[in-house]
Amino acid sequence: MKRSDFLLITCEHGGNRIPSRYEEFFRGHEALLRTHRGYDAGALRMARDMSAALACPLVASTVSRLLIDLNRSQGHPRLYSEATRVAPPDLREEILRRYYLPYRTKVETRIAQAVAGGARVIHLSCHSFTPELDGEVRHTDIGLLYDPAREGEAALCRDWRTALQVRAHGLRTRMNYPYSGTADGFTVHLRRRFSGDSYLGIELEINQKHVVMRGRHWQEMRNAVVDAFQDALASGKSRPVVPATKLVSGHPVPHPR
Hints:
By secondary structure, the chain is an alpha/beta fold. It contains 7 helices and 8 strands.
C-alpha cells in the first residue's frame, strides 16, 4: 500500500502583536516592531495561500518574535530580544509557557500523530527576508532551506526550484539562502525527533521586495510559488500530498479562522 503524505504549513513570525501585559517592555521599541525584527512581512499571507490551496492545516503565530522567537531553540541567545531580556526571570518563564511552548507543542503533536498514523510529513515553514542586510544586497527572490543530508528534502527542493523556473522564470531561486537550512530553527529541532523517512522540513523564504509591491505582482508571485510547489509534489521524485486541490490563479483565497 502506498504511503500517504501529510502536509503541514507553519508561520512562526506572522505578526508583530505584543500582548498588553508586556507592553511596558516595548516602550521606545515601537518603531522596531514595524521592521523585519518585529515580524516577517508577507509570510503569513503566503502561508494562508498554501494552506487554502492544498487543503492542509496551518499553525501560525501573530505574536512578535521580539517577545519570544518561536523559531529559536530554548537557550539560544536570541530567544528573547533586547526588550524582553531585561524582564524578570519569572516573567520570561511566563512568556515561554504562554506562547512558545503551546505553539511548538501544537506543531510537534500534529506531526507525531501523522507519523504514528503511517504518513510521511512534509512541513513547510513560511518566512521572508529583507532585500538588504548590513549593506549586502540580496538579489535572490526565493530561498529554499533544507538539510542536504536528507535526500527527501533535497529532492523536493530541487523539484520545486525546477518548477519555479517554468512557472516564474524571471525569479531567482537559491538553495539554502539567505540562511542555512541546518542553522538553529524549528525544523532542525524536529529533524532530531523524526527520521528522514517520516519527516521533511523545508523553510520557504520570500524576498520582502515583492511583498511591498503589493497588488497584482504580489498575488501572481504567490500563485506561482504555490503552483510550483504542487508541481514538485506531483513530480516523479516526490509523491503527491493527500488531499490536494489545484489553486486557480487569481482566485481569491479565504483566510482561515
